[in-house]
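Entry 14. Ran structure prediction on the chain below.
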Amino acid sequence: MKTHRLTRAAAGAAASLAVLVPLAGCSSEESRPTTTPSQQPSNSSTASPKDLESSEAQETEYADGSYTARGYYGGAPSYMTFTVTLDDGRITDVESGLMPDNNETSRGYQERFAAALPDEVIGKSVDDVEVGVLAGSSSCGDGFNDALAKIRDQAATNS
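Output, C-alpha cells:
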C-alpha cells in the first residue's frame, strides 16, 4: 500500500511540474539575488551630515538622449530590450522590445509588462526608478532594472 501512495505522489508531482514549468516565463521567481551591490540598502544611521553632503555633491548627471540596453532575467535566461529617453535626468519615453523566441505564456507577460511600463517610469528621475512586479509579471521588472543600470552607465556624464 505504501508503494502505491508513493507512486501516486510521484506521478502527481511530475504532472504538476509538467504543467507549471512552461508557465514560468516572466512570472517565475528566481533564487538568485535581486539586488546588486549598488542597490544594497545603506545604513543611514551611521552616516554623518558631512557624509550626506559629500554624497549629494557627487550626484550623477546624465546626458540627454535616447539609450538602449538589453536586460536579462530569469534562469533561461530571458531578456527584453529597452530604449529609454532622458531629458534633464528624467525619463521622458520608454520603448520595450520583446524577446523574439518566446513561448506564448512568456510573450504574454512581456507584452503586458511593456504596456504597463510607461505609466510607471515616465516623468521620474532615472536615479529613482526601480520596477518590481508589474502587470502580473514578477521577473520582467528584473530585466528592466538590469537594462536601466546599463543605461545609467551609458548616459552618465561625470563617472
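The helical segments are 2-20, 49-57, 104-121, 140-155. Will compare against last week's run tomorrow.
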